[in-house]
Amino acid sequence: MDELTIWANAFLTQSAKEYLIDATRQQRLVFGEKTDHVLDPGSGDPRMQDAEVVFGQPDPATIMQLKKLRWIHLSSAGYAPYDTPEFRRGLKALSAILTNSSGVFDEPCAQHLMAWLLADARQLYPSYDNQRGLRAWPQNDLRENARLLAGQTILIVGYGAIGRRLAELLTPYSVRVVGYRRSPQSESPVRIVGPEKLQSAMAEADHVINILPQSEQTQSFFNAERLRQIKPGARYYTIGRGATTDQDALLGCLKSAHLSAVYLDVTTPEPLPSDHPLWSTPNCFITPHTGGGHADETLRIVKHFVQNLRRFERGESLIDRVF
To answer: Which CATH number characterizes residue 67's domain?
Structure first.
């Protein structure tokens, strides 16, 4: 294969940048302006005009002006800014491919959810609050409210790579896992339901986990009506995108005790304003979009890209292809 021009603006640590430079010595690597955050879209850069390959978070409007583009690899799992009819048509006209980094984030997100499930079951948050506050000894109350996961039903809405990994982590705990997909697949180790059975599945679940991506179809997917369809007293978790949940309706379900606890890694907006009522609502527990984070995150993103680059150089199918 002839020399490729690779334009990159992914948010990278120094070690990840050095790995990328070393792995692309046979190609022409051009660094665009570094973004401040892994999800920040870059600005237009005239040097992108020569790029056959783009890696990072490129400006969608600039992408549509490129003539040599053959492949975009996003440094994130999410791809909402690029999921428009206009962008899809433009990419198709270029015969270009879009891939993402979802394979980097399934393990950390699944572990984050696992930590929440266990912390909830074993009453770790109330114990921590007691330590920071009264420093009493509510042994009997905590023991009475603590639970085993065995026998619990866990519904994973948006059952993909993260959901599959979470289901594997849950195997020793003897739980019932149900997955929801808009288009159910016939072969799966867990029971998969489609839209027509979602309501009944939510009515049976002790834990409802939202891993939906952001799109027009998933905007406020968990609205007031759907949240009320969840089994009374259940727990709700979201680690996909904040826009998939109606937060005002969620607050109402918490205040009425329809939901016994809510765990949020994503919100609308982000950052969540410090005076937002979700911060102070009892039984609402928030992590600031850290579910996919880990110390070697950007290095793993680069290694994932390089793995795909080698496949691209050999003319093989790419991993984590979006469209």
So the answer is: 3.40.50.720
